[in-house]
Amino acid sequence: MNLTLKIWRQKDSNAKGQMVDYKVTDISEHMSFLEMMDVLNEQLVNSGEEPVAFDHDCREGICGMCSMYINGEAHGPDRGVTTCQLHMRMFKDGDTITIEPFRAAAFPVIKDLVVDRTAFDRIQHAGGYISVNTSGNTQDANAIPISKHAADEAMDAATCIGCGACVATCKNSSAMLFVGAKVSQYALLPQGQVEAADRVRNMVAQMDLEGFGNCTNTGACEIECPKGISLENIARMNRELMKAQF
Amino acid sequence: MSGFFKSSIGRKVAMALSAFFLMIFLLQHFAINLLSVFSGDLFNEVSHFMGTNWLIQFVMQPVLIFGVVFHFIMGFVLEIKNKNARGVAYAKNNGAANSSWVSRNMIWSGLVILAFIILHFIDFWFPEINTKYIQGDMSGLHEGIEGYRYFHELQEKFVNPARVAAYAVAFVFLAMHLLHGFTSAFQSMGATAGRKETLQNIGKAYAIIIPAGFIVIALYHHFNHIH
Questions:
Q1: Over the stretch B165-190, which tens digit does the pLDDT of each residue have?
Q2: Of B73, B82, B88, B216, which shows the fewest CB atoms inside 10 Å?
Q3: Is A100 within 8 Å of B91 when comparing Cβ atoms?
């Protein structure tokens, strides 16, 4: 298929970016979106132009690196997938595809479609862990009974890959689905409950410090999340923060 | 605790708490308005009680005004903060792909409701305050009207079709605001676990029945009074 691409080009974080049009031809519908971008970049390199910078790593939908806001949606029009798993069969011959970086003040553009998502790392550092004394008498985690329901919910929350689609999609650029998932995955398990109050307080404070917006419960994040993280995790985070006040 | 209400989640909770208060008030206002359809006398009695009871006038009324003002100011503050959190706007954004129009446009439905509240104050509240506290007439009576004046005043207000139309439009926007706001308030309080669908259904019923009821009451008085 032949496509017109409108891509955000920005030389560096200080430069003023703009949308630039490109044409790609003979794209197979079996290609992933990133492979289509590779074809474009090969074309650009061969003609002596600067290739389009975009994030990618595992290309298996588990690392959370690939981003891109495609035709007005994070990771494009398919559901439950990252951009590397988005296939060109989702588009038609002759289509014009708009490709932009994830937009948020807390995710500044580094170059073209690459954004700085280290704000998520700093939120994790603020409390997304458990402190375990590894002096040698640490209790075996498997020896602590955990209900199936709690284990399932914690595991579901833990599937968050921190890609940032929730922030990119949210009309308020809120990071609450990400933080909600990280808070929940520990809050549901006995190992995490020891530091639960400090964790939620510190992670929410860091989230606010990074300049993410306020959640207004539109639910867009849940729909666009490639891992299907539930809005219930945000409700749980709200409860955890309220509990942490007493 | 003061730190809590400065956090993003604290502000959500504050919005939700003021929303709960306003939704309860709306229900009470609707119940009293509904009385006017069945019995003018009963409506008069209740209106007089509400308008002259000190607890309602000097405790509940200031709390209500604070609730309304707080909800609006906080709504604007959050909207501005949220706009700033995006930085650069998308060239193409397909919001309809993942969220409802009403959830994305609470600020606009809220602004229409604010405009209506201003109209409502000019129509009902300011004349009441003038009669009761400036002219000092707490009797609830008016020359040439048998019994209390409230029912008569209500009927008079709904004679003008332009007012009825403005009233109806405002309540359609209120319905839109509530269609998202009702469940959203519970979600903000973290109270949706295991009962989200039930809350969504109750929310839909509340958001449609109450505003539609207000419109029907206005139409009832409009058509009943001109014939």
A1: 999 999 999 999 999 999 999 999 99
A2: B73
A3: yes
